[in-house]
């Protein structure tokens, strides 16, 4: 696959994945088209060497794997991990506000969102709706407005003369989302029924609950004088999900390779479908079949956690350590932290540098300034839960956790080439 084809697919994936539910559904679609088979955690598994399989949980996390034809106890697993969630605004349980003749929805901030860029954007709404159908069963379906239905208007500069000097955002009072004029707006439940109908769901007896998020309707795009950059919402971390997915699809059928994409990383990963939950370990233990095989396989396994890295910003270069400022379009970044906020050590880092050399791809390093706090990833969580050697890598990015982020055109493709070599065990 060439870089142009890869990036066109990436842009489509980003646009079709406004929520973790939709991202997981898009990955399921791609895996199914490639011959991977769906498994249910509640059923017996009969795994065939050389075949590919996937398991989802909560509709928002997925583990996909190829069953190699060698003894997994001797080979171990080559694993890559990412996360499906991104900071956003989620609709409250009782969200409806009628104020000054307008219809608004109250929201809660999910994750560490950069809030100011959410103002004056064209917003859509998407997520999962649970309902009782006409047969009396409780089921769920995904919905997506597919167009801009809302906005959060800024307060005019004339009414806030200090806005450019000292603008802060109060999530409770400043972020209720404007959907329309009150007299023209249907009941919120009726709105959800209409959205379900647009998805082809026509058996709704009663809407029971929902998990809905607002998202930026501006499409992902290649920008820059020569198309050097990828601009999109949710690059952190759907970009890594797509990288891992493409590498797994190209992985040889005779090797034991795994991709895990967890939900809830942005809020600590502590859920049944998050990296602190048992999903990945449960799947691997079922593949292994016995405790001895599991222990032997884990001792021979390796995990690459892929999550975006902070590219050095030309306007704020002092926010980086002078010797560790990753550049966009200069290769994937090895993320290092001596306090184990990243799982990389010298051996796993050396392994990755060797993979990059064999793939013909550049590589960079990142450590946070010693006087600044360091974020974290699913890497240390997975390493501590499984006892598997792990490293953290990522594509350098600007404006992380903004409603629209920026990455390099060449970096995502380059990291996918490295992961392809990783899965091949060349």
TrEMBL record:
Full protein name: M18 family aminopeptidase
EC nos: 3.4.11.-
InterPro entries, alphabetized: Peptidase_M18 (IPR001948), Peptidase_M18_dom2 (IPR023358)
Keyword Nucleus in annotation: no
Native organism: Spongiibacter thalassae
Domain of life: Bacteria
Family: Belongs to the peptidase M18 family.
Cofactor: Zn(2+)
GO molecular function: aminopeptidase activity
Enzyme class: hydrolase
Entry-linked Pfam families: Peptidase_M18
Keyword annotations: Aminopeptidase, Hydrolase, Metal-binding, Metalloprotease, Protease, Zinc
NCBIfam families registered for this protein in UniProt: PRK02813.1
